Amino acid sequence: MNKSVSNKYEETTVSSQSIFQGRMISLQVDTVKLPNGETATREIVRHPGAVAVLALTEDRMLVVEQYRKPLEKSQVEIPAGKLEPGEDPMEAAKRELEEETGYRTDSLKHLCSFYTSPGFADEILHLYVAEQLEKGEVHLDEDEFLDCESITLEQAQQYIREQRISDAKTITAVYAWQVYKLTGSF
């Protein structure tokens, strides 16, 4: 996504301090000059970006259920994962689809890209739709434990009501699928 060239609300960085460097994220605290000349601090999570796949087969959506430690509960989500440094998002989407579900495809279409939490993080998520799926083998990461299933649109809507699906990427995918079923296009 493009950054704004000039903005009357722009905050200029005065200083930046790295607080934490992890495997998936880093945290920094910036001191910024506000448009009114005052200063403030901003806590910023840096993330390399991610991909997610709305994978459709036989009028069903592939989802994975896995435990999410920050929420202290299991969630049903579409296949997704972190971008590796320099990795093409479409290739990452193919990789994540196969790793988590065992399905492969050469037919991916970019639906949209969005920032997950722009108030404190720079993570951008690229959402793709995949059809014409071919069954392969699951290749989970060594610290990844999940179950894959295929669900109908009605089941997905029920999971949202039950909060078994409660993440933005999966809810966005379900709504995109609903629009597709109503209009015939994404």
UniProtKB/TrEMBL annotation:
Occurrences of domain Nudix hydrolase (ranges): 45-180
Cofactor: Mg(2+)
InterPro entries: Nudix_hydrolase, NUDIX_hydrolase-like_dom_sf, NUDIX_hydrolase_CS, NUDIX_hydrolase_dom
Keyword NADP: no
Alphabetized GO MF terms: hydrolase activity
Gene3D superfamilies: Nucleoside Triphosphate Pyrophosphohydrolase
UniProt keyword list: Hydrolase
Any Pfam family: NUDIX
Similarity section: Belongs to the Nudix hydrolase family.
Protein name: NUDIX hydrolase
Native source organism of the sequence: Paenibacillus radicis (ex Xue et al. 2023)
